Amino acid sequence: MIDEKQKITNKTTASFLGLMIISIVGLILYLLLSNIMIVTKWLPYESIVEGIMENNIISKFIWMIKDFSEGQFYGGLFASMSLIIGAIIPWRLDVKKSKYAGINISYGLNIWPWIFASQILTMLIAVFVLGYLSLLDNDTFSWIPTFLLLVGAPQAVLCVYGPSVKSLFTGSILGGLLTVPMANWINNYIIVPIGMPGTIANYFALAGAITITLQVCSLLPWMEKRPFNTIDYGPSPNEEEMYKTLKNPLWIIRRTLADFTDPLFYGNEIASFFLIVGAIIDWFLNSKHGFLGSQVFPAILLSQLLSGGIGVYLYGRKHLENGWYPTYVPVVSIAPFCVLTFGTTLPVILFSSIFGAIIGAPFAELLNRNLPEHLHGVIPNVLAMGITTMFTISVMNYLPWF
After folding, report:
1. Where are the transmembrane segments (predicted)?
2. Which pLDDT score is estimated for 338?
3. What are the pLDDT digits (tens) for 230-254?
4. Which among 103, 161, 247, 300 is least buried, having the fewest CB atoms inside 10 angstroms?
5. Residue 364: enclosing H or E segment and its boundaries?
6. pLDDT at 138 (0 to 100)
């Protein structure tokens, strides 16, 4: 008979009850939202693009704001505004060491204001200095991946070198110069010619731009690593505490939600909850507003909840042992991309979510091994997103029921 100590050590998966709650809530939202499709004149995606083409400054600011939720495949105004509000709340609670702060925002480094500042600064550079939005012409370019500047090089520089004005401006300028042109080039000359959805190029562009930026930073004389003014959260959990956490249905729900904002270097469930509520508001206001007016938000949301929930269920112990684990990989790549490629049906959602949850995080962990100290773990994570998404799409292309 297994004694209590061995039972604790053998517990590797998170709460199955918690996974069921996530799945049921996701399915209810999918069925409800799919049957409430409202098309109005409230900020359809096409009108935002037309405003930018007419050099309307308000349309440009709307684009900048909506980009905050573009990495989650939402791209909505209320989704992004809610996300920002939702991030401010846990940051302030975290600083005050409140028990209600949730999972430590920005990985407990106490740099969320710097992360947010880098996102605002690099978007201002991209839109008003480099003028990337001038490429929009509703023909060759009906969308520009400026959101990559919110989830890549500028934030990685701050995480590696610490919070400083030098890190803020160096990362924002280098990231702004490299990322978007690299994404467009990889899209046009590599990804599309091999028959894959073009926007998969974004993941490889992120990996390349972040790597080059950090390599350049390692050579710049003014770039020096600064210590983080981290908050003391107490000792790491012991075996018994990890066992209790894994058994708790609420923990898997919280950790799954946190994955939604991991691409933005937030990683907090409160911010993610606000993000999802805002995206639902966008859907009710106009289903042709969010994510390029594609009208696939309900299916994407379900695929993300399932892939995230299954990933945390399978690899929850690794989160607790390592402090973090890349279960967010399929949430913002494999699952939603397969929905966009193969349609919004339940078989597509279920297969891509389960398959993505199984392979996404372990493959990212594999690529993370032996990463040089001056680079950041987001590089192998986004590489894993691109590779596993292409692999999953290839597998599904050969299955007869997709």
Report:
1. 12-33, 73-93, 114-135, 141-161, 168-191, 203-223, 264-284, 296-316, 328-358, 378-399
2. 97
3. 777 767 778 888 889 899 999 999 9
4. 247
5. helix 346-368
6. 80
Q: Is 143 exposed, middle or buried (0-12, 13-18, 19+ CB in 10 A)?
A: middle
The long-range contacts involving 369-376, CB below 8 angstroms and separated by at least 24 positions, are 374/160, 374/214, 374/215, 374/217, 374/218, 375/160, 375/210, 375/211, 375/214, 376/156, 376/159, 376/160, 376/210, 376/214
Distance CA 230, CA 198 (A): 39
pLDDT in tens, 296-343: 999 999 999 999 999 999 999 999 999 899 999 999 999 999 999 999
Which one is predicted more confidently, 35 or 4?
A: 35
Alpha helices in 3-73 (DSSP H): 4-10, 16-34, 45-53, 57-66
Coarse DSSP helix, strand, coil percentages of the chain, rounded to the nearest 5 percent: 70, 0, 30
Report the number of distinct structural domains present in the chain. Answer: 1
402 is a domain residue: no
**Amino acid sitting at position 127:** V
* Alpha-carbon separation of residue 330 from 47, 349, 386 (angstroms): 31, 12, 10
User: The pTM is what?
Assistant: 0.95
What is the pLDDT confidence band of residue 1, given thresholds at 50, 70 and 90? Answer: very low
The secondary structure of residue 98, as a DSSP letter, is: -
Domain span at residue 251 reads: 4-397
Of residues 200 and 226, more confidence is placed in 200
Yes or no: say if 156 and 109 are a contact pair by the CB < 8 Å rule. no
Q: Domain with 280 in it: what CATH number? A: 1.10.3430.10
